[in-house]
Design a protein that fits this description.
Blueprint: E1 5-12, H1 19-27, E2 44-50, E3 54-60, H2 68-75, H3 78-86, E4 89-95, H4 101-111, E5 118-123, H5 134-144, E6 149-152, H6 161-169, H7 186-205, E7 214-222, E8 226-235, H8 238-245, H9 250-267, E9 270-279, H10 287-292
Parallel strand pairs: 1-3, 1-4, 4-5, 5-6, 8-9
Antiparallel strand pairs: 2-3, 7-8
Helix pairs in contact: 7-9
The structure holds guanosine-5'-diphosphate (GDP), magnesium ion and potassium ion.
Residues 46, 60 line the site of potassium ion.
């Protein structure tokens, strides 16, 4: 018998509720993908959290957290449902008492998704001045779905994340760790560099588009003094490309500077960063784009 636990967790929720913020807070730099068990080959791994006696493997759930109408249709397909059935715990994240059609869609999906335990994460509680308003909202939600637990958190401030970890860990199956968490691979640094660029881009384009943007790392060369990185930002629309490039390239230059500074901090080396912007229709179906981000083997 093993005294460790290990399993798959999916975080779902409409765009902007705080999923990425939570992942960043929980995992920090540990987005390592080193060895891989056959159980996980069907999932893209988004991040791994290892403690002494448990390892939480966060599964990416494409088509569910992708948001936007097109993806919501996709979310209703069987693949998405079976992905949810396949994980050990689902976290459904919402933004305080804000409830939108996007949330409604995700809840409907969960109602069809078998008996995987679902934790309701009520995020951004730091935003709520009057905590009393939360209760009726939660009662209403609890009436529509039997959540295994309801956990108020602040992903941004790290509030109540110990409780969340505990709730996740106790629902994972007993077993050995799947991943050797010691080494940070090159791939994961690339992944994080891509995420940094993406974050800066999303900040420029506004919060409606985060899932229409992806970033590919095309080149990563560790020279003696400087790491040379080239990345392509893939957007869906011509207008987005125009905004990103800006007047005489001013916007993309600014994005590049901000991203470079963060990447330098991450890898503790001088970085030379070249950014390109391309229009890419239907990128979310493009396995290649996802693979270059390190989601896949
Ligand atoms: P995602 O689209 O679900 O991945 O959401 P993000 O993680 O990108 O977060 C969307 C926005 O909400 C960002 O501006 C975050 O800084 C903000 N945010 C996330 N978590 C919290 C939180 O706990 N409190 C507050 N006040 N803001 C948060
Ligand atoms: Mg996100
Ligand atoms: K993702």
């Amino acid at each position: 018998m093993s005294d460790t636990r290990c399993g798959l967790v999916a975080i779902v929720g409409r765009p902007n509720v705080g999923k990425s913020t939570l992942m960043n807070h929980l995992i920090g730099q540990k987005v390592s993908i080193t060895s891989r068990k056959p159980q996980t080959t069907r999932h893209r791994i988004h991040g791994i959290l290892s403690r002494n006696d448990y390892q939480i493997v966060f599964a990416d759930t494409p088509g569910i957290h992708a948001g936007q109408e097109r993806a919501l249709n996709r979310a209703m397909n069987d693949a998405a449902l079976s992905a949810l059935n396949d994980v050990d715990v689902i976290c459904f994240m919402v933004d305080g008492i804000k409830w939108t059609e996007g949330d409604e869609h995700v809840l409907k999906l969960l109602q069809r998704a078998g008996d995987t335990p679902v934790l309701l994460l009520v995020n951004k509680v730091d935003n709520l001045e009057d905590k009393q308003v939360l209760l009726p909202h939660l009662q209403d939600l609890a009436g529509r779905f039997s959540f295994a637990e309801i956990i108020p958190v602040s992903a941004l401030r790290g509030h109540n994340l110990e409780a969340l970890e505990k709730a996740l860990a106790e629902r994972l199956p007993e077993g050995e760790f799947w991943f050797d968490d010691e080494q940070l691979t090159d791939r994961s640094l690339r992944f994080m560099a891509a995420e940094i660029v993406r974050e800066k881009v999303v900040r420029q384009l506004g919060q409606e588009v985060p899932h229409q943007i992806t970033v590919e790392i095309d080149l990563w060369e560790d020279g003696p003094k400087v790491t040379d990185i080239a990345a392509t930002i893939l957007v869906e629309r011509r207008g987005q490309k125009k905004i990103l490039i800006g007047d005489q390239g001013a916007r993309i230059k600014q994005i590049g500077t901000q991203a470079r500074q963060d990447i330098e901090r991450l890898i503790e080396r001088k970085v030379m960063l070249n950014l390109w912007v391309k229009i890419k229709a239907g990128w979310s179906d493009d396995e290649r784009a996802l693979r270059s981000l390190g989601y896949d083997q």
